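go over both lines:
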Amino acid sequence: MRIRPMELTSRRGLGLGLASILLWSVVLAPRAFAEPRTITYDEAVEIALDRNLPLLLANNDRGLDALSVSDARWRFLPDLRLGVSGSESFDKVTGETGETSWSSDRSMSASLSSSVTLFDGFANVSSLREARFEQAAGELDYERARQTVVFQVISDYLAFIESTEQERVRQANLAAEEEQIDRVRALVEEGERPVNELYQQEANVAASRLAVVEARRTLELSQVDLMQTLHLDPLAEIVFEIPATGTPDAVGPAETFADLVEIAGESRADLTAQEQRLAVSDERVTQAQADRWPTLSLSGSFSSRYSDALDDDLVTQFDDRQSAGVGLSLSYPIFDRKQTRNAVDRARISRENAEIGLAGFRQDVALQVRRAVLDRDAARESLDAAEARVAAAREAFSYTNERYLAGASTLFEVTLSRADLVSSESGVVSARYRLLWQNRLVEYYVGTLEPDADLVR
């Protein structure tokens, strides 16, 4: 039996398809049957602090700052240099008979030399202080970066919990609408209600199902945002554990806006880092002014030589032809074409710019705290209003539904009342988590946000 080319091709395609399916099943099977990974809030913070890219870069900058301090410190010590050189020279020589030849002369020398700066207008001292100020600023930047990472985790985690609560509200509403349709169907079958109310209630159920789908999509997207913040594998099955959030404080903290601004001036790591960089600008002015002073250096050297033109051997010549020297070098600038003066002026202008930037940053910090406090107070009032609204909406719906069952109200009124109740319940959830988020936002702007603190305090 002969196999046709088309049959052979189809069999090959079928074989490749089966092989591909088998390969993918082998690759994806461990993921499909693997247990979902449960991550708590504390674990999420640890993961974010370990994997956040800007934080890793800030940590590398800390290492560079430490190297700069080390370089500035070692400049106070003398250096030591070893030099070894060798050469061979060729000379043309004419003999007594007029014939010519070439003679060679090999030589070698070795030396040790060292030098140290005794005085350079305090430029080296200022460079060390500058490096230390930069290192302190880098440490503060790293601390602020940690706070930023933790706050991002808090924001995403609260958004995830809020989405979970919103999805629960929509699920509860769907269950209530499905119960309501049974009541309406019974009333229609008994002839107490027109059939159009049954159709209207079916439309209400469909709308509730759509709301559940949208709420579930929002929940899944919030989980994706949290996974992105933590740099987790998109194909991994992750279950985020929801901690107890408690009830937001209805009274609020005792600190006033002025107190919080004062605390921010002492606690904000990035503000203190800007102050450290202003000190760096002062040191750069000092370094520019150092060129007006003389420079005094101490140097010393030790050397020895060898040449095969002499009869002594290598060891003897190196022992006999030793030499050493010590010297002082003083350099004083008399005229440098205004280079020092211009450098000092540039350093002073840079220092003024840093001072202006620091003043502007202080104002930005105060305004950030003010906005956060105002938004927090507004969120607290919104939560109070939302809770009052949901209590009234619940009573109104109960009354309207009872009237409907008694035949004194219409389904349209019940639908409007239920929609207002669902909207108010959703508003309570939004207001509650907005207040929780605003409380942590105030801590972030004030600079008191602790990476190891609970999600909600």
In short: Residues 78-119+295-331 form a domain with the Outer membrane efflux proteins (OEP) fold (CATH 2.20.200.10).
